[in-house]
User: Which sequence fits this backbone?
């Protein structure tokens, strides 16, 4: 399990870095300046990916039938923490423009998909065993 987690974490990190650089490149070419730190959002999502993936991996050993429910609950907790940590950005007086809104959504969905793929593969291997 640890080897699978490390490989998947490394792949997720590489994908995140590529998308972050592509996003920064696009924003700089469009002369867009974000009112928040895009890197901080990626760091938050990456840390939460590691916590969720390792927790799902540990839980799959003890309670393999409950992994899906735990993953679903962890996603809601992640969204709640995200809103708490980035509330000044999300609920600021000034309305976010389109590049700022899409720059929040891109890392969220990228990491959400990676977490879902990892959890799904883990649940499928538990079903076969």
Assistant:
């Amino acid at each position: 399990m640890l080897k699978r987690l490390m490989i998947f974490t490394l792949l997720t990190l590489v994908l995140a870095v590529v998308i972050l650089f592509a996003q920064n490149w696009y924003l700089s070419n469009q002369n867009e300046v974000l009112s928040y730190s895009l890197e901080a959002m990626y760091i938050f999502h990456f840390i939460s990916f590691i916590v969720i993936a390792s927790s799902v991996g540990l839980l799959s050993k003890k309670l393999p039938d409950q992994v899906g429910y735990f993953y679903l609950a962890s996603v809601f907790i992640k969204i709640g923490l995200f809103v708490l940590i980035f509330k000044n950005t999300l609920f600021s007086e000034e309305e976010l423009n389109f590049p700022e809104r899409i720059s929040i959504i891109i890392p969220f969905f990228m990491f959400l998909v990676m977490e879902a793929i990892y959890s799904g593969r883990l649940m499928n291997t538990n079903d076969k065993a």
